[in-house]
Design brief:
Elements: H1 5-23, H2 27-43, H3 45-48, E1 52-54, H4 67-75, E2 79-84, E3 94-97, H5 101-105, E4 108-109, E5 115-116, E6 136-139, E7 143-144, E8 150-151, H6 157-163, H7 168-172, E9 178-182, E10 205-208, E11 211-214
Parallel strand pairs: 1-2, 1-6, 6-9, 9-10
Antiparallel strand pairs: 2-3, 4-5, 7-8, 10-11
Length: about 220
């Protein structure tokens, strides 16, 4: 379902504005905030009780870097799943398991310059759907507001994926996965400003360099 023109126009304007702003965030600030966010997340109960974790693969700028988090999660014995978006199915995103640290270090870039599994090797990768589902999804985004609403890059992959986890109780006999965004301070809208949302958009719990930004009402994280 396409967005209404008014909401779509607002989202487009916000994306254009914040894409420029985030490009100006110094690399040193991104590195510093990424280390702080990683420490907060690793110490959080929501992370510690999760076994199957989806972690996005960060790009070099404009967002929290996830490489250290992935390495640490693998070293702790967590089962780490990363996104795979097949070029032949433009609306599909799967979460495929990283088999080892060496597999992570050997990832190549896809058509958007984002690291993912080699398409020639995905048949050998375990899918979250056959692994009993996920316990935690770390969600990327462009900007967030203080109610946990997120604005992504417009492709809708994560909204579709999260919506498809609502039947976990019947499929896997467990709750849907917790959804957490790890964000730069520059990605958070000022107090009083909101991300325009539509019915299929999903709110998340947000963690910044200062720690947990907001504890969302029960059922929204």
């Amino acid at each position: 379902m396409p967005p209404s023109p008014s909401v779509g126009a607002l989202k487009k304007a916000l994306r254009r504005d914040y894409t420029k702003r985030l490009r100006a965030v110094p690399t040193s600030a991104i590195q510093e905030e990424s280390l702080a966010v990683t420490r907060h997340l690793l110490a959080s109960p929501i992370y510690q009780r999760a076994n199957n974790i989806s972690i996005y693969l960060s790009t070099p700028s404009s967002e929290i870097q996830t490489d250290e988090l992935i390495r640490e999660s693998l070293s702790r014995g967590k089962r780490v799943f990363i996104p795979y978006c097949p070029a032949a199915e433009p609306t599909l995103m799967r979460m495929l398991k990283l088999s080892s640290l060496a597999a992570f270090e050997g990832l190549g870039a896809n058509r958007w310059g984002i690291r993912e599994h080699d398409p020639a090797e995905i048949d050998a990768c375990e899918d979250s759907e056959t692994a009993g589902g996920l316990d935690l999804i770390l969600v990327p985004g462009l900007i967030f507001d203080r109610s946990g609403n997120r604005l992504g890059h417009g492709r809708g992959y994560y909204d579709r994926f999260i919506n498809a986890t609502h039947d976990y109780p019947s499929r896997f006999s467990k709750p849907p996965p917790s959804t957490v965004a790890i964000a730069l301070k520059a990605q958070i809208l000022p107090v009083g400003e909101e991300v325009p949302v539509e019915e299929w958009d999903r709110a998340v719990l947000i963690v910044t360099a200062e720690g947990e930004l907001d504890r969302l009402p029960v059922g929204r994280a």
